[in-house]
Amino acid sequence: MTYILDSRFTRASVRTLLISGLGIGLVISLVACGSKSPNGDAAKAQPVIAVELVSPAVRDWQEQITASGNVAAWQEATIGVEVGGVKLDSVLVNVGDQVHKGQLLAQFNEDSLRTDLAQQEAAVALADANLGKANSEYDRAKLLETTGSISQQDITQYQTTAATANANLASAKALRDASLLKIRYAKIIAPDDGVISSRTATVGAVGTVGSELFKLIRNSRLEWRAEVDAENLGRIQSGKAVTLLRPDGKQVTGSVRQLAPTIDSSTRYGLVYVDLPAHSGLTAGMYVKGLFSTGIKPALTVPESTIMFRDGNNYVMKVDTENRAHQIKVTTGRRQDQQIEVSNNLSTEDKLILSGASFVNDGDLVSVSTNNTNKDGAQ
Questions:
Q1: Using one digit for the tens of pLDDT, what is the confidence trace for 257-292?
Q2: For residues 144 and 156, what is the distance between their CA atoms, to the nearest angstrom?
Q3: 8 A C-beta contact, residue 242 and residue 292
Q4: What is the pLDDT of residues 215-261, one digit of tens each?
Q5: How confident is the prediction for the chain on average, in pLDDT?
Q6: CA angle (163, 168, 172) in 5-degree steps
Q7: For the whole prediction, is pTM greater than 0.90?
């Protein structure tokens, strides 16, 4: 390259121009060299992360149906007032108390009831005396009938009077028995063994026939009323064991007693009645979850750490023979011992990223760790 300099260029200006030209050429050379490896090939992509791989495994798992429902009393007896108009003198039990059949729970005042009984007993005595007199007169009339000194009409009248006196005596005795029954009803007695679940009885209150005083869970026996969808209801059998999960994390084993004969038309769920053991730690009114076992069924499983959640779906990252990651959508099912069932798109020959899959995108190159010990999905 030839430079023609006129008299206006100084020696310094020429030096600056030459240095600038050399700099531009050096940059172009560096760019050209940087775009190729020393052997002239394009630079290779770098792995985004080092990972361990795991393969799905087939396991024989108990197939289970999950359901939820309320804990309720097997039978809850209502204990009410059977005698009205008298004051409640004492209440001897409270909610949560264990009671036995025949135990006194509360006591109504008996004073007015015993006064009524005395009146009825006097009425019985009077009716009995009247009956005796009527019978005696009828007997004399029958004797006179043989002599012809009394008319048949009079005899019939004596007979009617005796029959009426007998009816009056029976009525008086019935009223007396009713008074005795009221005195017996003044004592509120437990109809069965169990636990008091509700109390509305208040000392000093005047009883009204039919009003509730207590509720009693008979035999302290509870049941779980599981709500099961129509599809799974037919797979549950009476007598099978059920595992319930208590709120504190502990498990309770119950037994299926019976299935409801109908399904709710609005929810499409049917009830399964499960007997609970004594001292289960559950309380009537709790809403708990339980598991029904329906037999052994093979499951294709992977460790839970392989599953990642994106865009409302579950995915795993499958690594091919060239160490490229591919995002695979899966459907999950049963869970056990940190393993989870996957129901599609995978086989036992596949290699999945064990953990850290959420840091990898579809198509990324990964580096497989040489310390990869989890070959079959075991933990």
A1: 999 999 998 989 999 999 999 889 999 999 999 999
A2: 13
A3: yes
A4: 999 999 999 999 999 989 988 999 999 999 999 989 999 999 999 99
A5: 85
A6: 150
A7: no
Among residues 294, 374, 299, 338, which one has the least CA distance to residue 59? 299
| Whole-angstrom distance, CA of residue 81 vs CA of residue 213 | 7
Which contacts (CB < 8 Å, 24+ apart) does range 256-260 have?
A: 256/292, 257/223, 259/233
Question: Which token pair is 257?
Answer: 């007693």
Cα torsion at 133, 138, 140, 142 (round to 10°)? -170
Q: Could you read off the pLDDT of 53-62 as tens digits, one per residue?
A: 999 999 988 8
**pLDDT tops 80 at residue 335:** yes
Task: Identify the three-state secondary structure at position 205.
Answer: coil
Q: Residues 342-345: contacts with CB within 8 Å, 24+ apart?
A: 342/56, 342/300, 342/301, 342/302, 342/316, 343/300
From first CA to last CA, the distance across the chain in angstroms is: 73
- Which of 262, 243, 289, 254 has its CA nearest to residue 74? 254
> Angle formed by the axes of helices 111-145 and 152-185, to 10°?
160
